[in-house]
């Protein structure tokens, strides 16, 4: 009997009309991690300006894997928006489906990124470019993996019935982190893959 009561007890996520405490923590996390990526990309562009085309690898970064991978991550953000809207309406089945789709797409992104790393003609120790490439994409990969853990927890809680139209803040907070991961990748993709071809 106590186990049933425990499973049905609502999570401490604030009430209607109040901002859940988790929002402040997630906003602080996004701000600090955003600053980290800003510094990393600043380092990339600093070397790029200092050394020019000779600093970049030959051949230039290709879109064969990175292009589809970017589309996959954008779609995962859209499925997370759908999941969040479903959670706000108390439609736990659709919310769980949206979170599960985002999770699977995130896993596919990680798999393709690992394939791309394997295809590179350089490594993290071959040059300053290689060091920055693997550092930036590696940090992003770590954030994607952290996001997958968040999505896995949200999916389990949704399936256990912890959320309804009144209490769904964790889904929105987790969605914020996932969108942050996607926006960071768009910045990384533009910087590392697109700008070398714009010269």
Name the CATH architecture of one domain. Up-down Bundle
Ranges where pLDDT stays below 50 over 5 or more residues in a row are: 1-7
pLDDT averaged over residues: 90
Q: Tell me roughly what share of residues is in helical segments.
A: over 70%
Biggest pleated-sheet summary: none
CATH fold-level label of one domain:
Four Helix Bundle (Hemerythrin (Met), subunit A)
Look at the helices and sheets and give the structural class: mainly alpha
- Give the overall form: elongated
**First-last Cα distance:** 68 Å
Q: How many individual helices?
A: 6
Number of strands: 0
Give the oligomeric state of the chains in this entry, treating copies of one chain as homo and distinct chains as hetero: single chain
Family: Belongs to the cytochrome c oxidase subunit 3 family.
Pfam families: COX3
Keywords: Cell membrane, Membrane, Transmembrane, Transmembrane helix
Main location: membrane
Structure description:
With 199 residues, the protein is mostly helical. It has a domain at 67-199: Cytochrome c oxidase, subunit III, four-helix bundle (Four Helix Bundle (Hemerythrin (Met), subunit A)), CATH 1.20.120. The protein contains 6 helices and no strands. The protein has helices at 2-8, 21-51, 66-88, 92-119, 128-159, 169-194. Helix 2 (21-51) runs parallel beside helix 6 (169-194) and helix 5 runs antiparallel to helix 6. The chain is elongated and about 55 Å long. Mean pLDDT is 90; it is low at 1-7.
């Amino acid at each position: 009997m106590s186990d049933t009561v425990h499973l049905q007890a609502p999570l401490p996520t604030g009430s209607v009309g109040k901002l859940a405490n988790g929002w402040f923590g997630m906003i602080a996390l996004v701000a600090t991690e955003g600053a980290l990526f800003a510094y990393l990309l600043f380092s990339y562009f600093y070397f790029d300006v200092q050394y020019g085309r000779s600093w970049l690898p030959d051949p230039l970064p290709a879109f064969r894997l990175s292009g589809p991978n970017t589309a996959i991550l954008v779609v995962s953000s859209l499925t997370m928006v759908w999941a969040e809207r479903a959670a706000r309406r108390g439609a736990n089945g659709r919310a769980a489906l949206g979170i599960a789709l985002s999770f699977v797409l995130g896993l596919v992104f990680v798999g393709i990124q690992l394939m791309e790393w394997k295809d590179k003609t350089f490594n993290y120790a071959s040059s300053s470019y290689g060091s920055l490439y693997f550092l930036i994409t590696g940090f992003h990969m770590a954030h994607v993996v952290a996001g997958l853990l968040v999505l896995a927890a949200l999916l389990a809680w949704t399936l256990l019935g912890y959320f309804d139209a009144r209490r769904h803040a964790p889904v929105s907070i987790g969605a914020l982190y996932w969108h942050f991961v996607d926006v960071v990748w768009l910045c990384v993709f533009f910087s590392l893959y697109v700008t070398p071809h714009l010269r």
